[in-house]
Amino acid sequence: MQFLETLRYYSPTERKFITDDPHGVNPDGNWNNPFSPIRQLDDGAGLQVFANHDPVNGRDDWGLMSSFRNKSSITGCKDIGVWDTQGRSGNWGVVRANTHLIFGGGKTVEFNGKSQFSNYVQNTIDGTIFKRVDEDIEGLAKFWSESMQLDSERRFQTASLPLNNFGYYSGGDWTLSGTIGNGGDQGDGRLSGIYSSVDYKPVCCLHKSCCRQGSAQLEVRCKIEITLKDKFGYFYVGTELNKFGTPYWTVIHMFHDYNAKLEVPCN
């Protein structure tokens, strides 16, 4: 999937966008009509940067973050024509991967509008297939978080910013470049709490053939919405922080398709 960079700046002082919408949807800077990158880029990735908000803790005073509000179709799914469900979410915090997909039970991935795999395929298909799907989807979320290099140690070193209380994702797990405490090392709380997170919501549909001689053909189609949130992140550091104010957040939204055809044991 191509990563399409789309930046737009919002001034909390002027209460309006101070740069044009890169796609021309709202070029006049009217902040009442927030930019929605996913709707404009379809299945591509979209990036937004805005100040003085806290998307990790749900603060979005001006409605600038459109995460998990977009509808998207899943190709080849008769029972889910438009994705209008919230799905299930998994989230990695800065300190460690604190909420993984729950393997086998299907509590994270939503199949055919149901939150439990067993509700749909009980006593029909071997549950190990769901572990594989869960692992694959988890791997996609990890791949994108690592590819985007949220809060990488190299970036902060290059920008001569303090490394205390920043976390980054590297080598399959979250790593701390400093120590996260109850307060911030600047004395005003700016560097306390969560700084980067990966949130993903997969919705899937499942088609299976009849069980013949102990095996069945299984087709899985999923669309995964992934949001990466990063305080001060990406490459807007140093003078840019002073220019636009702090705290600054980078939010990346994207959709990712996952399709699999498998032969599974059944009874």
TrEMBL record:
<protein>
    <submittedName>
        <fullName>Uncharacterized protein</fullName>
    </submittedName>
</protein>
